[in-house]
Amino acid sequence: MNGKRVLIASLGCPKNQIDAEVMAATLAAAGYALTERAEEAEIIVVNTCAFILPAKEESIDEILRAALRKRDQDGNCKYLVVTGCLPQRYGRLLEKELPEVDLFLGTAEFPRVDRHLARLIKGDDRRARAAITKPDFLMDAATPRLPSTPSFSAYLKIAEGCDNRCTYCVIPDIRGCFRSRPGDDVLAEAETLARRGAKEIILIAQDTTAYGKDLKGMPGLAELLRPLGKLADLRWIRILYSHPAGLDERLLQAMAQEEKVCPYIDLPIQHIDDELLAAMNRRAKSGRIREVIAAARAIIPGVALRTSLIVGFPGETPARFGRLLDFVREARFDHLGAFAYSREEGTPAAALPGQVGGRVKERRRALLMEEQAVISFEINQSLIGTLQEVLVEGPGDIPDYPFTGRCRRQAPDIDGITHILGGAGALTAGEIVPCRIIAADTYDLYAEALLRSSEETKPA
Question: What is the DSSP string of 134-169?
């Protein structure tokens, strides 16, 4: 029980966030005092992302900021630790490039962070500065975890790793092969999260639709949703990171039948040109993508579709980009993110001919987002007058709209939010209230909370 104060700065996706929560719980159990104030921290842990160049740059910037605190003779920071994807990807090369860092830990070391820190503080110079082992860690319901999200909404990692081997992606090397958690183990953690107050559970993995393919009997995500839907304290179940190749009719039917599953599909398609999809080693080509979108809209009434796209992939000619832009107009996604292709060393795509210039990539990305802004605005305008369940998240900062929240068609951090009109009385964070949409802009909705007692206010 050393009481040293530790700050954990986690970057990247919600999957990284859960890893940071595992480290936080492990360190708290070992007697460390967790802090959110960098100036107080004696130990700073930077949990990194290394998926693409901007993520790596953000990670390096955060490490260098922490290093400045460590060099400040009047400051408290004595140790700087870097964990996660960046060390796993670059291994001991970082020891030379970042001498300010005392310890590098790979993606398998999250549950052992307390032991590594104990050795570091003890001053055991015989040990290497980096612990980079096979990326085989898979948490379970018994793994300690200290959630960093508000208690009413929690991420739940149902699998780890990836077998898809997209040619632009380094995730299989960083996170290892795809590994599913057993269904009863996922259910046990979901029960714990619900008991702690989670109204919404968000299922995540590198590929959620691959869930169960490595388990006995190959139970799929559809089979996992049914027991989750029976948890009494849980109100919403949301699914992120669905691969179009794995989103079959059985899963869509399960989503439609389970009342607690949000009518929301996160479907990264990356592109629509078949030659580029083949070069990316994507398992779903344009015909399959169109089939999945049509099936989702036919089976799940009012489903909200989110996608992510890559522009400027090697070989993306003006004509191929034009096909993508036309498809965005055709598909009319509710939410869309576009990313400029990042040429990552060690990936097959990095060696492909036809690399696209940076300015062209950024121009194409801007064109896509301008087109999507029009579509998003039109879709949001069509929601005016509809009734929506809204999960209240907290106070707002817009006059006359004292609260903010999200409806079932909005995922946290990546989509817009719902501003809630005053005059309906005090609302509590974590409360789910029926609302009528009274206005909308490009990304956000504006709603009036309705009285719970009126049958007329029950959302469809």
Answer: -S-----TTS-----S-TTEEEEE-EE------TT-
Same-domain check for residues 393 and 375: no
Question: Could you tell me if 237 and 217 lie in one domain?
Answer: yes
pLDDT in tens, 25-77: 999 999 999 999 999 999 999 999 998 899 999 999 999 999 999 998 788 99
pTM of the full structure: 0.93
224 three-class SS? helix
In angstroms, the CA 213 to CA 8 distance is: 34
Of 359, 380, 401, the one marking the end of a domain is 380
Question: CA nearest 246: which of 275, 271, 268, 215?
Answer: 268
**Is 148 part of a structural domain of the chain?**
no
146, part of any domain: no
Q: Which residues of 201-237 are buried (b: 16+ CB within 10 A; e: fewer)?
A: bbbbbbbbbbbbeebeeeebbbbbbeebeebeebbbb
Q: How far is CA 313 from the centre of its chain?
A: 23
Q: What is the CATH number of the domain that holds 419?
A: 2.40.50.140
* Lookup: tokens for 327: 């498809």
In three-state secondary structure terms, 269 is coil
Both 330 and 281 in a single domain?
yes
